[in-house]
Design brief:
The chain contains four helices and two strands. A two-stranded antiparallel ribbon has the order 1-2. The protein starts with a helix and ends in a 7-residue tail after the last strand.
């Protein structure tokens, strides 16, 4: 996997300043969540741990997209656009109304 990463893009195209900046902002965010919610939760995973999990998933998605050739995504452009338009129409008919706006689809445990 590493050979493919270095072969496709090259690690020299990675700007280390942006990586440091992003990691600093993420660290400040996690520390802020930790300091605000420390000792408040019981029985569930702490919020800062959930945030770290989402950061890890986002980093994995980023690395997958960075390592792949974006030209392969072009074939999904029109189907993705059609799907998004269908979802917008679906919100018109099935969306929840809150504070005068119809804007949310109930998705079971994800809502």
């Amino acid at each position: 996997m590493i050979d493919r990463l270095t072969e496709h893009r090259g690690l020299d195209s990675f700007d280390i300043r942006y990586v440091v900046l992003i990691l600093t902002i993420l660290g400040i965010g996690v520390l802020s969540i930790y300091s605000v919610t420390h000792g408040q939760q019981s029985g569930t995973a702490p919020y800062y741990l959930k945030q770290l999990i989402w950061i890890g998933l986002g980093a994995a998605a980023f690395l997958i997209m960075w390592a792949s050739d974006y030209h392969h995504l072009a074939r999904f452009a029109y189907p993705a656009y059609a799907f998004i338009l269908l979802m917008l129409v679906f919100v018109l008919f099935e969306g929840r109304t809150s504070k005068g706006a119809q804007r949310w689809i109930a998705l079971g445990p994800f809502s």
